[in-house]
Amino acid sequence: MQNPAVETPASHFADLPATASHGPLRIEYRWLNAAANAAPIAVFLHEGLGSIAMWRDWPQTLCERLGMRGLVYSRPGYGRSTPREHHVKWPVHFMTDQARDVLPALLDALHIDTRERRRMWVIGHSDGGSIALLYAALFPDALAGAVAIAPHLFVEDVSVQSIAQTKVLYETTDLRNKLSRYHADVDSAFYGWNDVWLNPAFRQWSIAEQLTSIDKPLLAVQGHDDNYGTMAQIDTIQDYVPHAQLARLDACGHSPHRDAPDRLNDVIAAFVSEHQ
């Protein structure tokens, strides 16, 4: 539920030029604590069915705890950003494209300069956690640190099974109507995510070896009851990024910011405080 004491900031739109991986994009974004223009920025990267609206008030709560400005945005295909054309299937490497092309282009469009990026924290959940890891690996000098919440480094059977079950629910229950509150084109959001995860070629996808260039502080968080991934995901992060810190949350599923927000905020705040 939205905190009634906090006024919801307005969403804005940024126009991004075409690149080799995508055409021109219109990205929905929102600033949190915008008046604190001297504070570091926390960039939030949402999950595979997420958007600005799907975060609800958790980014605002965390930014207040950290004393940071927040930048939340709906990735292409989600929320009110440019939808995926329905005949287009996302490629297996779509998360790398998001980290390499979309996020830096958005930072450029918002005039976030090199100095600000070096103080910036990148915080992602699920697919967004994977994108946060990839951004930290691709641009090791353009952030202060990263937090990956329930990220995916490779494809597990439990992930594919849960995503296949979600497709059944989407097509046979009111899940589609529920998700349509958060996306202007709900089929763009759902099938963009669902089709690539159920693509047999995606079973070979892995980003583990790409993470060795991460040298900034990295926190990885996983719930013990996550039905989209096991502890092997964050254990693998530490195999490739030995300085990474891991947090394992009891009685917590795939969405710690909804299942255990206070514990998650405590873990993140302690980590950021240690490394600021």
Automatic annotation (TrEMBL):
Gene3D superfamilies given in the database record: alpha/beta hydrolase
Alphabetized SUPFAM superfamilies for the sequence: alpha/beta-Hydrolases
AB hydrolase-1 domain residues: 43-266
GO cellular component: a single term: membrane
Keywords tagged on the record: Hydrolase
The keyword Hydrolase is annotated on this UniProt entry: yes
UniProt cross-references to InterPro entries, sorted A to Z: AB_hydrolase_1, AB_hydrolase_fold, AB_hydrolase_sf
A GO molecular function held by the record: hydrolase activity
Pfam family, one: Abhydrolase_6
Keyword Hydrolase assigned: yes
Name the record gives this protein: Alpha/beta hydrolase fold
